[in-house]
TrEMBL record:
Entry keywords, A to Z: Iron, Metal-binding, Oxidoreductase
GO CC annotation terms, alphabetical: mitochondrion
Pfam families: PCO_ADO
Keyword Iron annotated: yes
GO molecular function per UniProt: metal ion binding; oxidoreductase activity, acting on single donors with incorporation of molecular oxygen, incorporation of two atoms of oxygen
Organism of origin: Periophthalmus magnuspinnatus
Coiled coil in keyword set: no
Name recorded for this polypeptide: Uncharacterized protein
Length: 245
């Protein structure tokens, strides 16, 4: 039998296209992927390694004098369709992608080299919740940007880990930090960010509560903030096999 020479990343793109094709349908209000197809996609993504994308792990553990001006995070675009987007994020040693959301989207993060810590939050219904006292206190203009949430998990991932998953309902907000050196991960989002369809990216700050109003220590309040000044994302050419979908 002839050997299948299709690059793994091309198989992943095709599978993502099938898996998430109904996420935008009006009948699928929760944007759920097809379960069996989703399993197959997870299996393909789990086996992806940096070498499959011709990605050489960065060696430098800290930026040099000129490196201080280089972006803490770089994005390599692979492909985007109305159904999903796919690319690679590279984090400099010690860099992190601040807490942000993916409204109405599914996602998958697969580490290609290095190690990352992912802190995932779920948004909770704020209706009827008693707003606690914050330290420092919030101004009136900040109150509408508050949202109640819960820290769902903090996990570490390396190249041998399965992907970290997010859905519109669970683990939808996350902060990703490179641990012990540079790190890179494949990022699949379905559907892609689209500010014209209420899928813009928002950044959040975890607030300190001086007098917790809840029994749950994991419950927390987030304040929507502008993109933090110490975070920006540069671009870099994707070196791997071409992908068509
Ligand atoms: Fe993200």
């Amino acid at each position: 039998m002839p050997r299948d020479r299709t690059p793994l990343i091309q198989k992943i793109a095709k599978q993502a296209s099938v898996t998430f094709k109904d996420c935008l349908s009006k009948d699928n209000g929760e944007h759920k992927p097809l379960p069996e197809q989703h399993k197959q996609l997870i299996s393909l993504v789990t086996s992806l390694r940096a070498a499959d994308l011709k990605l050489a792990p960065r060696k430098s553990s800290r930026p040099g004098p000129e490196g201080a001006q280089s972006p803490p995070v770089t994005y390599m675009h692979i492909c985007e369709t109305p159904v999903f987007s796919m690319g690679v994020f590279i984090l400099r040693s010690g860099a992190s992608i601040p807490l942000h959301d993916h409204p109405g989207m599914n996602g998958m993060i697969k580490v290609l080299y290095g190690k990352v810590s992912v802190r995932c939050f779920d948004k909770l219904d704020s209706d009827g919740a008693v707003t606690p006292v914050f330290e420092p206190p919030l101004s009136h203009s900040q109150v509408p940007s508050l949202c109640r949430s819960v820290l769902h998990c903090v996990s570490e991932y390396s190249a041998s880990s399965p992907p970290c998953l997010l859905t519109p309902q669970q683990d939808n907000l996350h902060q990703i930090e490179a641990l012990g050196g540079p790190a890179a991960f494949l990022d699949i989002l379905a559907p892609p960010y689209d500010p014209d369809n209420n899928r813009d990216c928002h950044y959040y700050q975890v607030l300190q509560v001086s007098a917790p109003s809840s029994e749950s220590p994991e419950e927390t309040w987030l304040l929507e903030i502008p993109q933090p000044e110490d975070f920006w994302c540069g671009g870099q050419a994707y070196p791997g096999p071409p992908v068509s979908v």
